[in-house]
Amino acid sequence: MTEPTPARPSAPSDHWGVAVPTGGLNIRVVATGLLVVMALIFVSAKYYQDVHPAIGFVRAFAEAAMVGGLADWFAVTALFRHPMGLPIPHTAIVPRNKDRIGDTLARFLLTNFLLPRLIARKMQTVDVAGAVGKFLSEPAEGGGRLKLGASRIIADALGALDQQRLGGMVKSAIADRLRELDVAPLLGQALQAALAEGRHQPLLDAMVGWGSKTLELNEHLIHQMVHDNSNAIVRFTGLDESIANRIVAGLSKLLAEMAVDETHPLRIRVEEGLAKMALDLQHDPEVKAKVARVRDELLENKAVKRWLDGLWEQGRAALLKAARDPETMLAGRIGELITQFGAMLGEDEAIRRTLNRYARRAVVGTVDSYGETALRLVSDTIRGWDAKTITDRLESAVGDDLQYIRINGTLVGGLVGVLIHAVDVLL
Predict the structure, then answer these.
(1) What was the pLDDT predicted at 40?
(2) Residue 322 has what pLDDT?
(3) What is the pLDDT at residue 166?
């Protein structure tokens, strides 16, 4: 093995993502120059070989070095083109076998890297939830990237999607969730809690007050009703007016007493009725069915549908406006919730385990379902590349290492030549 290439300034990359050398030491010139030097040494050693026996070792070194250098030059060149333009068999290997190389690379990746069991084993050591939690809970380090990335993703997604279809999907999803919601027990529990804490009393007071005002405004209707239902004698004697006055006075007195006395028997009867209603809402199948029918009728009501339309449009507009401003995207309550969620991921071991398990299953499932498709994409992409272009890019990427092979071949060949000459001298 030779020493690694000395560090040089990084070269720019073209659109293939391959670094193209633009300066520094040209190793190809060094390798070719070394071969030329070996040829000059061989010629000189051949001319002066009778001067001293040691010159034979120099000649053997140079001769074997030329053989080794030429052999490695041929091997390196044959990878990418025909040496000296001659159509020698088994040369220009890369351009001739470009398609087969792509297929082989795809099979290699599939059988050695994109196996679900290998991915699952690797994912066992990856703490996805911990990394996400750290990223979310440390805004000083990741806040800028998080704000910019999240805002761009959300804004692009909202801008690219069909808003009419998306709105329909969102509204349908909301309506479906509301239809699945068992409203009756929730109403019953809320009513039961209100009764237990006395929060129904202001409502009863308001109802009593409303009853008093309604009675005051509609006394003439009571008088007219009594008058219409009385016989001629009662009307002649004026008893109908007296009866109506008594009815109005009695109702007014009843409502006044209920307004000041929370323990009034009628208020207690109302509370008992409310308590029974709370229990029926939670446990009576018939009451639950009635509430469900009312819920479905409300959801089909045109006014409710218009309200859902307006709710979606307002929410989408607000979200799009916030997404277009990275500084406000994660500010306020949303930013606090995300930070708290990140801290929770870092502290709650059970949640971390659950999220990591879901992440592992998602990655393994994706690889299992789409691994072959992705590798077919690799193979098809390589097939679509121009042979000359990919050859030039590949040679530029590994060219220096290949030229070091030529240098090594020249030097190692020379050493082998010296060893063979030494054996020949000893024998």
Answers:
(1) 93
(2) 64
(3) 58
Q: What is the pLDDT of residue 319?
A: 65
State the DSSP code for 362. H
What does pLDDT average to in each consecutive run of 10 residues of the chain (427 residues)? 40 38 64 90 87 87 90 84 76 75 76 75 80 68 54 57 60 75 84 82 84 85 82 74 84 84 84 87 88 84 78 71 61 63 74 80 79 75 73 74 86 90 85
In sequence order, which ranges of 163-238 are alpha helices (DSSP H)?
A: 163-180, 183-196, 201-217, 219-228, 232-237
d(CA 174, CA 308): 9
Instruction: Count other C-beta atoms under 10 Å from residue 50's C-beta.
Output: 8
Q: Which residues contact 30 (CB under 8 A, 6 or more apart)?
A: 403, 407
Residue with tokens 């990418």: 80
Residue 406 · residue 69 · CB < 8 Å = yes
Residue 419's pLDDT is what?
Answer: 92
Residue with tokens 């082989």: 104
**pLDDT score of 325:** 64
The answer for 3, left when phi > 0, alpha when psi is -120 to 50, beta otherwise, is: beta
Rounded CA gap, 13 and 20, in Å?
Answer: 6
Residue with tokens 């027990």: 185
The distance of Cα 378 from the centroid of its chain, to the nearest Å, equals 23
- CB count within 10 Å of CB 63 equals 21
Nearest Cα neighbor of 36 from 61, 60, 69 is 69
Q: Are 55 and 45 in contact (CB under 8 A)?
A: yes
Residue 204 in tokens: 């009863």
Cα gap 82→93, rounded to integer Å:
9
- For residues 405 and 398, the answer to whether their CB atoms sit within 8 Å is no
Residues 195, 199, 200: CA angle, nearest 5 degrees: 65
Query: Tokens for 341?
Result: 């969620």
- Output the pLDDT for position 18: 38
Check if the beta carbon of residue 314 is closer than 8 Å to that of residue 114.
no
